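Q: Hi! First time doing this. I have a protein sequence and I read that you can turn it into a structure. Is that right? Here it is:
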Amino acid sequence: MTGRGSTVRVVPWNSTVEKILSSKPDGILVGNGPGDPAAVTRTIDSLRQLIGRLPIFGICLGHQLLALALGAKTYKLKFGHHGANHPVLNVDTNKVEITSQNHGFAVDVPSLEAIDGRVTHINLYDKSLEGFAHSPKQVFAVQYHPEAAPGPHDSDYLFDQFFELMQSRLRDAPNS
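A: Yes, that's right. Below is the predicted 3D structure, encoded as structure tokens:
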């Protein structure tokens, strides 16, 4: 992100919504981390309050937390996804991306679709969800690690997509 001319502010997982918004961010990137996403209730509650206010991009655990904040469900995978060279289908482009992964939970597709989430990426090994978007709320997320660049450039477009969301929000904002 910083290589693209952005200023990045890192905040702890338990930051309040007020604290996050006080820095006037253009967007929020919800990063990765270990464990059961359902146990991170404080972050899920904060994300519920932030969704729709700013563009939000989730990666790995951030993907799962955003899905839970929107009202979808997660489940434990029988076999977690760990390592590099995992093929993922981008359903929008019909291209296969080579990804790096490290997770043991996944988002339940029917529960995501029930809250108007749209599937964007599917794991080609077990058909589990690898990415989703909720366009009206300016939220999108991927389960894998685009920052790891195993492709090495297969997933760069995700960061471009996030920047475009932030720039369009700034363009469309009323002048104050």
